[in-house]
């Protein structure tokens, strides 16, 4: 039986939103990411997994412009289709992007970090929560929308003088913040300092903040770290809602295999900066190379022996 086009099993090949092509990142003598290629499907929840130090956060830092890759290309596509012609033109013309209305291609490795959320529609959360702890929960979500408000003010005193365009943009920003506070069950904490929230609530606020920028791709760095089982289940629901009701694709780094296997359409596995597996959650779960990497054993045969031993 052939797999139907655009089924979850094919989306990252058929309709890629993001393509990471031959990405290499070196720090002096350390090769943190080594000639890595993978794709994120439009509408997929994709997990990037691997043992500690495998290079996962380095990949996120390259995607979001925190690091300039040593080599390789990172392509984000808006609108359906591979956009091959636009991509070739942008690439050979030394451009950062090529846009036509709502569709276009973005070469993330050429873009400064502040342009990536706004132009390319890629937002992220961090492994170590980075909120403004002294600001209220609501203020954190308004700060995230600062760019849009500055544009509405015309980069002038328009904001302070309360021009109608600015006031409309401000109302929209507040409405969006309230919406995401509802989605993340934080509305009743809107006026509390973000630093007073529990750890799990701060993680949800980080996601709300990223979603307030209206991303096409949401990158979550270990969103389940430190959560209890109930919070983890809520997180799974939230990630699914983000994908199903907002059409935002999700790329997550996660060590919690329960979360990864339950919600991911597609899993990419790194070990020592190299891709060792790439496929559906089911395929990857049973891949001896992956099991060997996680168990820290030398070869696949040894991993198979251990797995058979556990199963019998
Ligand atoms: N700025 C840096 N300078 C030097 N080495 C770095 C830097 N950032 C990462 N590394 C190295 O690159 C390798 C990959 O690190 P990275 O943090 O990307 O792994 P990871 O898979 O995210 O690990 P973890 O699951 O523990 O968060 C490690 O050897 C790390 O020490």
Automatic annotation (TrEMBL):
List the molecular function annotations (GO) for this entry. Answer: ATP binding; ATP hydrolysis activity; L-isoleucine transmembrane transporter activity; L-phenylalanine transmembrane transporter activity; L-valine transmembrane transporter activity
Q: Which terms are listed as keywords in the entry?
A: Amino-acid transport, ATP-binding, Nucleotide-binding, Transport
**SUPFAM superfamilies this protein is in?**
P-loop containing nucleoside triphosphate hydrolases (SSF52540)
In its UniProt record, which GO terms are filed under biological process?
A: D-alanine transmembrane transport; L-alanine transport; L-isoleucine import across plasma membrane; L-valine import across plasma membrane
Q: Where is the ABC transporter domain?
A: 18-297
Q: Its GO CC terms?
A: plasma membrane
**What protein family is recorded?**
Belongs to the ABC transporter superfamily.
For this protein, the record's PANTHER family field holds:
CONSERVED COMPONENT OF ABC TRANSPORTER FOR NATURAL AMINO ACIDS-RELATED, HIGH-AFFINITY BRANCHED-CHAIN AMINO ACID TRANSPORT ATP-BINDING PROTEIN LIVG
- What's this protein's name? Arginine transport ATP-binding protein ArtM
Species this chain originates from: Pseudogemmobacter humi
